[in-house]
Amino acid sequence: MNKSQRVEAAIKGQSVDRIPFSVWYHMSGVDQDPVSLAETTAELTKKYDYDFVKMMPFGLYGVQDLGARIKIYSQQGKPPVWEHGPVNKIEDYFSLKPIPAIQGTYGKQLEFTELLRKQLPGDVPYIQTIFSPLTTLHKLVGDRVLEDLKTSPEAVRYALAVITEITLDFINENIKRGVSGFFFATQEARKELISLENYRTFAEPYDLQVLQSYVNRTWFNVVHIHGLDVYFDEIAQHYPGNVINWHDRNTEPSLAEARATTDKAFLAGIAAATKVVDGKEVRDDIIQDGTPESIIAHIREAIASVDGKRLLIGPGCCVDQFAPEENLAAVRKAVEL
């Protein structure tokens, strides 16, 4: 099987010659330059024999063009940092305007897509990372949005509509450039962050508009549920897309528990997120902190928990940028059947 065939078969629950896999992490030393980012991504894909690419534009790419002030270091291990947003009072939400996705920071990510398509082997699927509209708005204005949606819902809805329009344009431009699908990330589906009622009002309708714009046009579509104690069932039941990714080694449900509730494929199995220890969230990254032997055992445990069916191996979130090479190489060894 080639890589696209392997990934597609795993998603459909068909037999595979081995479990498809990939690993991803931020590349803050090169992610401000689409040329270097595409070159580095392609080099790592070939070096570690990844079956697919989860594209890694920097996490704040969706807010810079809308007025967020970002401190950029362009150093490995020092990702860009949000300093302040464009909303200081409620009226400022109404100053946000749609922009074409071919310009500015969004445009740089499209250049990344175009360059990556030319540098990857032809059988390697690649999926662009996009964020839910509420996630983007949260990144743009900060935590105030969580209160503003309660006190000034119309202003927040206006801003969400603007961001949705931009996201839809960005999706269309990526499809023109040949992506196999999208990695749709929501960082807002956490019970400690937002009530289910408010999630269904301020997140889900916009998420569905975004997802429904491409799920019938691309074949490899992942929904990522970021964080601990998340609305997994809500998303698994209502969001289109054929693959779910979440912090499966650090929060409920486990892979086995999730398999009992949905027949969607899972992109999961590697601990690379946070966990709660003594009431505090701490980093849990086996690719950074483990050994090749422990990583192989860890991944094979995940494979066994769902009998290797409808499974792609990958991290629950991003692996550390400084993960040892021998540990990254161990992931490939672990997926042999």
Descriptive notes:
The chain is α/β, with parallel strands linked by helices. Helix content is 41%, strand content 15%. The chain contains 13 helices and eleven strands. The protein has helices at residues 3-12, 34-48, 104-119, 133-141, 144-151, 153-176, 196-202, 204-212, 232-238, 255-259, 286-289, 292-305, 325-334; strands at 53-54, 69-71, 81-84, 126-131, 181-186, 222-225, 243-246, 265-270, 272-277, 280-285, 311-315. It has a seven-stranded parallel β-sheet with strand order 1-4-5-6-7-8-11. A two-stranded antiparallel ribbon has the order 2-3. α4 packs across α6. The longest helix is centred in the middle third of the chain and has 24 residues, at 153-176.
Attribute tags:
337 residues; 13 helices; single chain; alpha/beta
Q: Helical percent range?
A: 40-55%
N-to-C SSE series?
A: HHEEEHEHHHEHHEHEHEEEHHEH
The main pleated sheet reads as: 7 strands, parallel
Q: Please state how the strands of the largest beta sheet are arranged side by side.
A: 1-4-5-6-7-8-11
Please give a quick description of this structure.
Helices cover 41% and strands 15% of the residues. It has 13 helices and eleven strands.
Write the layout of secondary structure elements.
Layout: H1 3-12, H2 34-48, E1 53-54, E2 69-71, E3 81-84, H3 104-119, E4 126-131, H4 133-141, H5 144-151, H6 153-176, E5 181-186, H7 196-202, H8 204-212, E6 222-225, H9 232-238, E7 243-246, H10 255-259, E8 265-270, E9 272-277, E10 280-285, H11 286-289, H12 292-305, E11 311-315, H13 325-334
